[in-house]
Design brief:
Elements (H helix, E strand, L loop, with lengths): L40 H12 L2 H12 L4 H14 L5 H21 L14 H33 L3 H4 L1 E3 L4 E3 L1 H14 L1
Antiparallel strand pairs: 1-2
Helix pairs in contact: 1-4, 2-4, 3-4
């Protein structure tokens, strides 16, 4: 508290929960400790998507996005609020994440707004490095899949083992007489 203005020293604690306060409420008295109102993602989505897709909510979301809030942040807020109000359980919220996210984006775009998918204005260098690494990994995966297609095409163009009189044993080609020579050596040792 050193270095704080005198009027801020005590007001920071006003309204803050007391340590251990959450342990003093009656178990089951919180909305999220009760059975949820909606038990399946379909039921929950049917209840909130019309609201998300409404023009009034869409305009509010556009304003929030213009201020820097992303669709991802809005989705998290919607799902957390529904859970904390006892509308759905955590597992239903996880299953609803993608449809709600897409609903937020569609609502904004249907009203002519530009949807912000995630927060691009991150000042966290570790997060920026992680995003860059993820992008590079996606590019490498894309290049590998293209390379695999070229390899498959090249393998299809080669002559088949039946045409050459050779049998494929996995990593290379071996003449048909090789197994007989090996077996001949083994037969002599087994007699």
């Amino acid at each position: 508290m050193v270095g704080m203005p005198p009027d801020k020293k005590l007001t920071n604690f006003v309204g803050a929960p007391i340590p251990g306060m959450s342990l003093t409420t009656e178990p089951g008295s919180r909305p999220w400790e009760q059975p949820p109102q909606y038990n399946t993602p379909k039921e929950a989505l049917d209840s909130i998507l019309p609201n998300i897709m409404s023009a009034e909510v869409g305009r509010n979301m556009i304003e929030a996005m213009e201020r820097g809030v992303s669709a991802e942040d809005m989705t998290d807020g919607i799902l957390l609020t529904g859970f904390s109000e006892g509308k759905w359980s955590v597992d239903v919220a996880v299953q609803m994440a993608l449809p709600v996210f897409l609903g937020v984006i569609n609502s904004v775009e249907n009203l002519g707004g530009e949807a912000r998918v995630d927060s691009d204005d991150s000042k966290d260098p570790e997060l920026d490095a992680l995003k860059e690494a993820e992008y590079e990994l996606m590019e490498l995966t894309k290049q590998e899949s293209e390379g695999a297609n070229v390899l498959e095409d090249a393998m299809e163009d080669e002559e088949t083992p039946e045409d050459s009189g050779e049998v494929s044993l996995g990593s290379g080609m071996m003449p048909q007489k090789a197994p007989e020579a090996m077996m001949g050596g083994m037969e002599n040792g087994m007699d």
